[in-house]
Amino acid sequence: MMAPGLRLMEGETSLFILGIDTSCDDTSVGIVRDGVGVLSSVVSSQEDLHSRYGGVVPEIASRNHLAMMIPVLTEALRKAGLTLGEIAAVAVTQGPGLMGSLLVGVTFGKSLAAGLGIPIIAVNHLEAHVYSSFLDRGVPEFPLLCLVVSGGHSDLILMEGHGKYLVLGITRDDAPGEVFDKVGRELGLDYPGGPHMDVVAEEGNARAFQFPIPKVSGGPFDMSFSGLKTRALLAIRSSGKTEETVRNLSASFREAVVEVLEMKLEEALREFHPRTVAVTGGVSRNRLLRERVKQLGGKYGVPVLLPQPQYCTDNGAMVASCGYFRLQRGQVASYDINAIADLELKSWEDDEP
Ligand code: KG4
Ligand code: ZN
Fold first, then answer.
1. Domain span at residue 233?
2. Cα 280 to ligand 1 centroid, rounded to whole Å
3. In sequence order, which residues have a C-beta less than 8 Å from that of residue 109 and are 6 or more positions away?
4. Beta pairing, strands 144-149 & 16-21
5. Which stretches in the chain have pLDDT values below 70?
6. CA-CA distance, 310 to 253, in Å (whole number)?
7. Nearest ligand to residue 26 Cα
8. Which of 31, 120, 133, 175 could make an SS bond with 80 (beta carbons 3.0 to 4.6 A apart)?
9. Per the domain annotation, does 1 fall within a domain?
10. What does pTM read for this prediction?
11. Are 216 and 225 in contact (CB under 8 A)?
C-alpha cells in the first residue's frame, strides 16, 4: 500500500525507514521516506510524569518507554498508512543518553528488525539532531555548521558530508537546556523550565540583570553555562520571586545564554565559511535564539536551517533520516548491538561497513 500523499514516478522506488528514539524521556517513532520526507512522527512525552520531581527520573523513564513502545509504533504506522512489511530498515538511537532508556529502544528496535529480517542501523543521538534540520526540507549544501543545543548537549559541529563530522566545541560543564531547566525550577516554573522561561521572557527586561559572558578554558569553540546558572540562582535568592523578577530574570538569562551561543557560531562562521548553518535540539525552539541565528545568517549571507518546532526536541523521524543516509552507504549494524550511554560522535563515512 502506498502512503497517503505520496506519488512515485514509474520505475522509481521509495525507501521507508522507521526510526526509534528513547534516549531520555520521550518515546518516539518516526517513519521517513527517502531520508527527508516525514510520513509520521509520533512522540509520547513523559513530561507530566517527571514534572513533580523537577527533572527526569531514569527508572520511571525506562519503565514508561517499555509501556509506550508498541502503542507509539502502532500509531506511527497508522499515520504513515504503512504496514511493517513495507519498512525497509529500522534505525535506532544507540547513545548517548540514559542507559535504561536507551536499552528499551535498542532492544525493541533490533528485535523488530530481526523479526522482519531487515537491517538494523545504529544512530548517534547527536547526529540525529543534525539530520532533524533536513526533515521536510532536503539535504543542504555542505559544509554545514550545526549547533546542537539540548538538555544534555551544546555541540558545535562542522559536517562536511554524510557521516563526516568535526566536533569544533562542546560545553565544558552544563548544557543550555539543563541550565534553563534548573533556573526555571528555582523561579517556580513548571518542568521543563526552558520553554516556560522563553514565554515569560517576552514580557521582561533583558537588561534588568547583568550576566557577564563566561570565560572558558579548553578549545576556542568550547562553551560554559554553569557560571551563568550560579549567578542566576544567587540573583533569585536575593531578589525574591516576584512576578517582575521572574519576567526580568528570564529575559536577562535568556539573553546571556543566547549571546554565548551566538558568539561561538559567529566565530566558527568566520573561521570555517560553511555553506549552510543549522541550529537544532530542544533549545533551538527558543524564540530569541531562532531570531538571532537568522540575523547572523543574513549578516554573512549563509542560508540558515532551523528545524520545525516538532523536530527540535527528541523524535524518531530524525533518527530515521540519518538511518537512510547510513543505509545508503552500507552502515548497517549487527543484531547484537548494545546501547552505549556515552557514545561519542565520530565520522563513519570512511568506515568499513
Ligand atoms: O533535544 P531535547 O528534547 O532533549 C535532549 O536531548 O536533551 O531537549 C530538551 C531541552 C529541555 O532542557 C528544554 O528545557 C529545552 O530543550 N527547551 C527550551 C525551549 N524548548 C525546549 N529551552 C529554551 N527555550 C525553549 N523554547
Ligand atoms: Zn536530544
1. 140-307
2. 10
3. 20, 90, 91, 92, 120
4. unpaired
5. 1-12, 352-353
6. 24
7. 1
8. 31
9. no
10. 0.94
11. no
- Asked if residue 123 and residue 31 are part of one domain, the reply reads yes
Q: Could you identify the residue written with the cell 505520496?
A: 6
Statement to judge: residues 316 and 303 lie in one domain: no
Evaluate whether residue 7 is within a structural domain: no
Ligand 1 geometric centre to CA of 153 (Å): 10
- pLDDT at 116 (0 to 100): 98
The pLDDT assigned to 352 comes to 63
Q: How far is the CA of 262 from the centre of ligand 1 (A)?
A: 17
Q: What are the C-alpha distances in Å from 170 to residues 151, 155, 167?
A: 13, 5, 8
Q: How far is CA 84 from the centre of its chain?
A: 26
| Residue 30: CATH number of its domain | 3.30.420.40
| Atom in ligand 1 nearest the alpha carbon of residue 149 | 1
Instruction: State which ligand 1 atom lies nearest to the alpha carbon of 151.
Output: 7
Tell me: do 103 and 251 sit in the same domain: no
Domain membership of residue 144 (yes or no) is: yes
Atom of ligand 1 lying closest to residue 192 CA? 14
- Nearest C-alpha to atom 16 of ligand 1 is from which residue? 282
The secondary structure of residue 219, as a DSSP letter, is S
Contact 228, 181 (CB under 8 A): no
Ligand 2 mean position to 314 CA, how many Å?
A: 5
Give residue-wise pLDDT tens across range 38-74. 999 999 988 888 777 877 888 888 999 999 999 999 9
In short, whether 297's Cβ falls inside 6 Å of ligand 1 is: no
Q: How many residues does the chain have?
A: 353
Residue 3 forms part of a structural domain: no
Residues 277, 158 within the same domain = yes
Task: Find the 239 Cα to ligand 2 centroid distance in Å.
Answer: 33
Characterize the bridge pairing of strands 89-95 and 16-21: parallel
Nearest-atom index, ligand 1, CA of 281: 1
